[in-house]
Amino acid sequence: MAGNTFFKDVNKCFDRAATYLSIEKGLLSQIKACDSTYHVTFPLVRDDGSVEVIHGWRSAHSSHKSPTKGGIRYADNVNEDEVNALAALMTYKCAVVSIPFGGAKGGIRINGKNYSDGELERITRRFTFELIKRNFIGPGIDVPAPDYGTSSREMAWILDTYRSMVNTLDSEGCVTGKPIAQGGVSGRTEATGRGVYFGLREVCRVKKEMDRLGLTTGLAGKRVIVQGLGNVGYYAALFLQEDDAIITGVAEMHGGIYDEKGIDVKKLREYIVETGSIKGYPEGRFVEDSKSMLEWECDILIPAALEDQITTENAPKIKAKILGEAANGPVLEDADAILRKMDILVIPDIFINAGGVTVSYFEWIKNLSHIRFGRMDRRYEENAMSRLLQAIEGLTGARFSENDIARLGKGPEEWDLVDSGLEDTMVMAYERLRETRDQYKTDLRTAAYISAIEKVALSYQQLGIFP
Ligand code: GLU
């Protein structure tokens, strides 16, 4: 685990990037600092009647924009330094993909597997209550979302608690990643993984880059190892597989599966959900020491679990050509320094896993505007397209088949619009990232920080406080 150095590590990346810019020192310190951190403890009466003290944190790293935004994780290693570091990553991530939020993060120090559903609900509601009491949550203040160990279920509890205490017109926007019937948006569940897919697709599209790594362009045939088949890792693997990449390895906490021919990730995930473990999966080869799989031969390595997975110890042994940081902070500074000297293209977390917060932004907008995307214009677009097709038929004498009419004339559903917004965000951000990297002759992570610092600095400068 990252111990208490995670935030320092994030700041080391920041400092390295800042040397490329001429921004006043005071302003740089302001950007780096975590604006506020709230540590709360409260008692949980467990199902057996015993009482346990629960620790939770919420950090708002930067309020250069409101609201602040970031997930809430449930894990037994959560601590203040981690939450601060993750909140800082959120600030930079939002800036890299031009999402107008400050960064935040929350965490509760529990292993969700050790608690009943009822206990988890009580913990979530009490934590939300504490945040409301301190004015640490609200559609214009700070908006949580799912993260490691949480899902739409916890977000629904957060909304329900918030709404029962603060019932304003915009209450639904107090949290994102909600179930659809509770104000969620289509595509949010798979968004982070889908963003990882779009990002890697763009990476593999650039011939010059692929030539340098000795790879062909395109995802087809690329061998991929994924660490963590949770929400992010699963959807990233699924979409990569649908685009003909071969998922050769999946590493879970208590073992992995390796299959040179390719793993059916959907089937494997179903097996894990059903049995609670990857052990005993009938296909491929079981790997006891799953962490070692990070060092195995592949084209793309995707750590999609927790921070500090690639260390000074295993970094020199990495054989992947491309490393896509689907998790937050899987490679910390010392290990990154090693990778920078190797022939590996590292795609930084603050770009490649930004799909989640991007679609959270769409969800928040949907909540504030109180209308489903596509509701006003879908039929209008269908009618316009139908008139266009009729006009073409009239002019050319050609006849469109039923199939063509159905395909060409279909207006966008909410999912189509969300997906196109996500795709555009990832494609444009990668293009700008490469430009920045080439302009400053540096690596992609430093370029991402450079671009984030520039944007946040500009926002502070326009407040007129800093030179
Ligand atoms: N937990 C996700 C992340 O680390 C999503 C945050 C959000 O949607 O606010 O990026």
List the helices and strands and how they pair.
Elements: H1 6-18, H2 25-32, E1 36-45, E2 51-60, E3 68-74, H3 80-96, E4 102-108, H4 117-133, E5 142-146, H5 152-165, H6 191-205, H7 207-213, E6 223-227, H8 231-242, E7 246-252, E8 255-258, H9 265-275, E9 285-287, E10 300-303, E11 322-324, H10 333-340, E12 345-347, H11 349-352, H12 355-369, H13 378-396, H14 402-408, H15 414-440, H16 444-461
Parallel strand pairs: 3-4, 3-5, 6-7, 6-10, 10-11, 11-12
Antiparallel strand pairs: 1-2, 2-4, 7-8, 8-9
Helix pairs in contact: 1-3, 1-16, 3-16, 4-5, 6-8, 6-12, 6-15, 12-15, 15-16
Bound molecules: glutamic acid (GLU).
How much is the radius of gyration in Å?
23 Å
Number of helices: 16
Instruction: Say what the CATH topology of one domain is.
Output: Rossmann fold
Sheet/helix structural class: alpha/beta
**Overall average residue pLDDT:** 96
> Main beta sheet, described?
7 strands, mixed
Q: Quick one: overall form?
A: globular
Report strand %: 5-15%
In angstroms, what separates the terminal alpha carbons? 39 Å
Quick tags:
Rossmann fold; seven-stranded mixed β-sheet; 467 residues; binds glutamic acid; alpha/beta; globular; single chain; 12 strands; 16 helices
Structure characterization notes:
There is one protein chain. The protein has helices at residues 6-18, 25-32, 80-96, 117-133, 152-165, 191-205, 207-213, 231-242, 265-275, 333-340, 349-352, 355-369, 378-396, 402-408, 414-440, 444-461, and strands spanning 36-45, 51-60, 68-74, 102-108, 142-146, 223-227, 246-252, 255-258, 285-287, 300-303, 322-324, 345-347. It is of the alpha/beta class and 467 residues long. Among the domains are: 37-184, 3-Layer(aba) Sandwich (Rossmann fold), CATH 3.40.50; 191-352, NAD(P)-binding Rossmann-like Domain (Rossmann fold, 3-Layer(aba) Sandwich). The strands form two sheets. Strands 9-8-7-6-10-11-12 form a seven-stranded mixed beta sheet. The protein starts with 5 loop residues before the first helix and ends in a 6-residue tail after the last helix. Glutamic acid is lined by residues 69-71, 145, 147, 176, 328, 353, 356-357, 360.
